[in-house]
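Tutorial sheet, problem 5. The two components below are modelled jointly, 557 residues in total.
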Amino acid sequence: MRAQDFNLEGLTKRIPGTGDFISIDIDKCNGCERCIIICMKALWKKKGSKIYLVDDYQTKCLECAACYQVCDANAIKFQYPVGGTGIVIEQG
Amino acid sequence: MKEYDIVIVGGGPGGSTAAKEAAEKGLKTIFFERGRKPGEKNSSGCGLGPRIWREFDIMKELTPDKCPSIREGKAARNYFVNKNDIVAGYVMTRPTESVTYEPAKSWITMNIYRSEFDPWIAKFATDAGAELKTSTLIVDLLKEDGKVIGVVDEKGEKYKGFVIGADGVISMVARQSGLRKKWAHDQVTMCPQYDFSAPPEKIDDIMGDEALAVWWTSTCPASYQVFFHDGFHQGLGNWLSWWDASPLYYLNRIINLKYYQRLLRILEAKPRELQGHLLPWISYPYNTHTENVILIGDAGGFSCPLEAEGIYPAMVTGRIAVEVAADAITAGDTSRTALDIFDEKWKKTSVGEDFEDGEELSKIWQALPFSPQETMSWFVPMFMEAIGGIYDWSQPHSKRIRQIAGHIKMYFPKALPFIMKYVFPLVAKIFENELDKMMDPKQLMAVLPKLLQMLPQKKKKRGEK
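Model answer (structure tokens):
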């Protein structure tokens, strides 16, 4: 089975109801696009010159925090989802 | 506000070790886990090194009934993949004759899923009397006159006490205490990782003792494979400064290697989980403590500078943090200066010894398996020429040896600067003064070209003068 045939969304278990835990301050963003490159799930996009986070990121994000960590402009805010919610890793 | 002696943010192996040690000293202790149970959130380390068995008595109790995913990593397979995505060869290794103690003579690592290991180790802490609060995210530090005096959870509940930050790579404790805002791009690695399920008997039959593998490739960062009882991880990583495409793109290239596809087929492996982890990988820990606060494990940057082993350093620093905190609390002085002894203590441990050569160790790793295009692209064919070139029927063997020697020599302009820049400084650091003369670059450059010239160009025929 080749990697492109994996059903990625079926490979993450999640307890919903987390509320927002990532946000971007567009005024601080310098458009470097490092968040777009580093996100394994391609949850960061660009429209014109504006970087944005997809609306349904809460149901797709792996909570690795790479986008927050890679943002030198400190435009991306990240806080883990509230206790007991978000991804569940059974084989970590 | 609830009052404790020790408040630990994080219920991983470091936090649990700290909680156990603190409770055993009679300190009123609480530790927090944001998951519903320890080990169900992003935690990437899955290899337990033999030093843990040497230094922590509880490990004798870790048996397959406690942790069904456990598999001994008795031997490691090293695959070498060339720039055409062909597995050019592999080498299997197991603990060698020079290893001095058990269980290190028997295996390299013990592999476990953290969803089983972390609850197991946390129970030692709760059995000792520490309070574990799960499903609780600690969002801030409690401060008084600018000094940290405790923590605040997401519901606004306050917990007063000496704070141990065991909250991993993105540490709220580090950030809110002012010890560190963020890691620099060359201090933290991004690791995409798949978990595959596979029938245990297939893994036994096909992999045997080889429960670890590294895929050294010329097109992707080195990729690791770790086998458990009924599955395996395949992941890779590199510093944040490195990526030019999605981390998943590179991991998928490994998965799509023809050889790998065959392995998946015969192991009857199926993708089971996708994970993304950040891993601190620094040359030397710094800013590890401030008044009333100590950082341990990944939060403090304590992962092995060569191979990023994280669980053992987290446990060691967790234990030391509690020793230091307990003494400081007793003495009534938890100031930053009083806690400097934390650094003195971890530096004297086996973990500290690794960091003595941390810069050289992390640099060589960065320059070799993590630099596929620059380094592995010549390293793989050169290495394979050396170990595989002679198995060949294309020419008389003596001619083959000359061909091999000549071909290896061709890679010297790339290999020699690498050896001078990364290997010699490391060797010189490890052996200190003893090898200073031998490692002197001037002397080496004086000798090496002559040695190269001595490689035979032509062979005289029998009877020829």
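Marking note: Residues 34-38 of chain A form the longest helix (5 residues). Full credit if you identified this.
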